[in-house]
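QUALITY CONTROL LOG
STEP: pairwise intake check
CHECKER ROLE: data steward
CRITERIA: each record must contain a sequence immediately followed by its structure tokens, with no blank fields

ENTRY 1 OF 2
RESULT FIELD BELOW
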Amino acid sequence: MTDPNVERKLVEIIRIISESEKPMGARLIADEMHNRGYAIGERAVRYHLRILDERGFTEKHGYIGRTITERGKKELSDALISDRLGFIITKIEELIYRTDYDLDTGEGNVIVNMSYIDKDDFDNATDIIRYAIGHGASISPKVGILEEGSSDHDIYVPEGKIAIATVCSITVDGLLLKNGIPTTPAFGGLMQMENNRPEGFVDLISYSGTSIDPIKIFMRRKATSILQAMDTGCGKMLANMREIPASAAENAALLLQRASEKDISGHICIGEPGMDVFYAPVQRGKVGILVMAGINAVAAVEEAGIRIETHPVSSVMEYRKMELL
């Protein structure tokens, strides 16, 4: 599991190495970490450096020390940077508030992920998305299609591109809130699938400890095996977990059942009070709700080798304007 406190230290170590004109050793890094307010020893620094080496963010030069790689520079520019910590959860909370989809009338907005693809690849991409939706890899069978030049929903589609909107699983949080159930997105992660059923998280990132969406991080790492999961029943898909008050669990279960009848579902599981949900920790007095990520269908397109640019938890869209593929 990925601890947000560990991630912050990793990013600070990368930052220190990047600021040096020569390789840096663990002792010098530990001294600088102390200067920046981190209580971490030389031995712990070595542990963190091994993680950075494994991720390809740093390179070891014998006993001289480490330097930052090009991959590390990219991670530093858009990952867990301290002056942006909390940005994604703030954006998510705003979109949750803007979700007003009414299960009874079928009117209102849902949260969507936006993906942009070349027009020439659109047919192949939609075939894969349709296949993924048919295998339950998304939370809704509906998608939104925006042609080039479109500026609907405050979304601009560049020339030569088509935008595909998929319903984001954070929509579930919007439905819960709209029906009086407070919710807090807790973790995004990789879910191991066995025999077409969730087996357990193999990696987690906290929404509160990251500056970019955890689901996007896993997509960038190319950590999924969604096509394999659909073909064989075993593989890694994207999922997330939110927490609600334990006293609201019964009402949440009824609401989610109603939502599934309106085509918003996706391997939903409600845990027990204070108990882990598929290895994701849950706070005392809370219950966890697991939902498969709506972006799985798009991630499958990327796995197939089709170039696609995806922005999770991007905007809101009127659900009635979305359509079946």
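ENTRY 2 OF 2
RESULT FIELD BELOW
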Amino acid sequence: MRIRKRILAIMKKEFVHIIRDPISLSVIIVLPVLLLFLFGYAVSSDVKHISTALLDLDETEGSFQVSQHFFQSGYFDFAYKVENFQELAQLIDSGKAKCGLVIPRNFSFSLNRGKGAEVQIIIDGSNPTIAQTALFSAQAIVQDFNLTISAQMARRTGAQLSFVPVDLESRVWYNPSLESLNFNIPGLVGVILQTLSINLTAFAVVKEKERGTIETLIVTPMKPLELMLGKIIPYMALAFGISTLVLAVAVFWFNVPFSGSLLLYFFLTFLFLASSLGIGLLVSTVSGNQFQAMQISSFVLLPSLILSGFIFPVEAMPVAIQWVAWCLPLTHFLPILRGLILKGVGIAYLYPDVIWLFIFSIFMVLFSSLRFQKRLT
């Protein structure tokens, strides 16, 4: 009886502690449900509606039929109509188009003469999941088109075709072997930098609160802005050094080819680290202890891991989930990393993600800094 009373007393005390900590209680209740909804809709490797650029050099009824066979399949979306190969290459370099469908001149002429015709599919191989889906889907679509053409000609002539109507030539750019390592390692660089920078800032400030040393700093003549900069800059320098280290390991140990500008990599990494450190500083302003900081950080880190395109393609997610994904800095930093490392493209092709990252970085640093100064004063 006494043992049961003591256990009940301890249980009562713990429940009181839980209720008196509304931040931790809210995170414990809301986070699992939120993650279940996000991951339930986002975790999918079924890729459809691949953004595709069409280069039709034949402009005949036959070329229209084969292109419609692609776009009515549900796997390829007719996103761009280009006039030359250079425009197509620019769209794929920038990531706006994941594929390019090229129908050469004299396509219908060759097909009607019984010589067989050819179409070309150019695929962005920087994301192997999308690339493999595009490649296998294109092969199946051409095979189905050939069966349709064969049946039509058989009804017309009464004889079976002795040749393959359309042959598919496929070219995979940037990652011809479709190795997942070349896709995953740049993504890991972004994930590691985000996790490190958020945790560095959030936990460092919270430790000061728990130890009571931050109050000692407040009563000094030091201004809140000086204190804030003094705490952030060392962690920015540390995170910047880590970014150099992880890139070196990726290139020299895992043999991931670095094709872009090293100077541009450091500049854009600085923008991303600024946004992540700003998030960490914001987490520190609403956290009373390290446990709360860890819980709140998971609201950013776990969704970023799933929704950013690091594991599952953003294109495979529902539109509502894609809007959530586009609000995360990592979603924009990963295309920048893969564009620099695998494609070797410059700022001219990366600017949409760079602009968003720049705006987010400025906003997050200013907003979190104001909150941090308000807490200090």
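INTAKE CHECK: passed for both entries
DESCRIPTIVE NOTE, ENTRY 2: The mean pLDDT is 81.
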